[in-house]
Amino acid sequence: MKLDNIDIQILQLLTQNARIQWKDLGEMIHMSGQAVGNRIKKLEDIGAIKAYTVMVDEIKLGLTYTAFITIYMKTTNHEVFKQFILSQNEIVEAHRISGGGCYHLKVKVDLQESLNALLDKILEFGNYELYLSINEINQTHPMSAL
């Protein structure tokens, strides 16, 4: 389904503030709150809106290390590794990739020792390359590409 300009405006505004009231959003795009609600429901139904989220200050929570790990599997049986990924709270994103490596993981940990323990577990499945984040660059308008 192709999105129109109103749908795109709604997505941009929800990206900036997912808690905005439909009435307030409607005022911003010259629609009634009920009409906005209907549009949002349609966007949810077609899967354009997957979920609503909260942005957390990870440093205040003690999650100070972000690492990216490329995994080179030892075996072609990946099911056990996929279950491992799902069981590790430190792994916040996991992608099966093409090119160099088999998987790319984004990991957040509070201590270097936690990262070392995770890396030791990963070695059971294959080798890895580790990249530590030194600075996150936040995109101010993630919907600007629409």
Descriptive report:
By secondary structure, the chain is α+β, with helices and mostly antiparallel strands. It is built from five helices and four strands. It has a four-stranded antiparallel sheet. The longest helix is centred in the N-terminal third of the chain and has 13 residues.
Please write out the topology.
Layout: H1 5-16, H2 22-29, H3 33-45, E1 65-73, H4 79-87, E2 91-96, E3 103-109, H5 112-122, E4 126-132
Antiparallel strand pairs: 1-3, 1-4, 2-3
Helix pairs in contact: 2-3
Structure keywords:
alpha+beta; 5 helices; elongated; 146 residues; single chain; 4 strands
Contiguous runs where pLDDT drops below 50 for at least 5 residues: none
Major sheet: size, sense and barrel closure?
A: 4 strands, antiparallel
Spatial extent as radius of gyration: 20 Å
How confident overall, as mean pLDDT?
Answer: 88
**Main β-sheet, spatial strand arrangement:** 2-3-1-4
Overall SS class: alpha+beta
Distance between the termini: 14 Å
Shape category: elongated
- Fraction of helical residues: 25-40%
Q: Give the percentage of residues in beta strands.
A: 15-25%
The SSE order reads HHHEHEEHE
Total helix count? 5
Count the E strands.
4
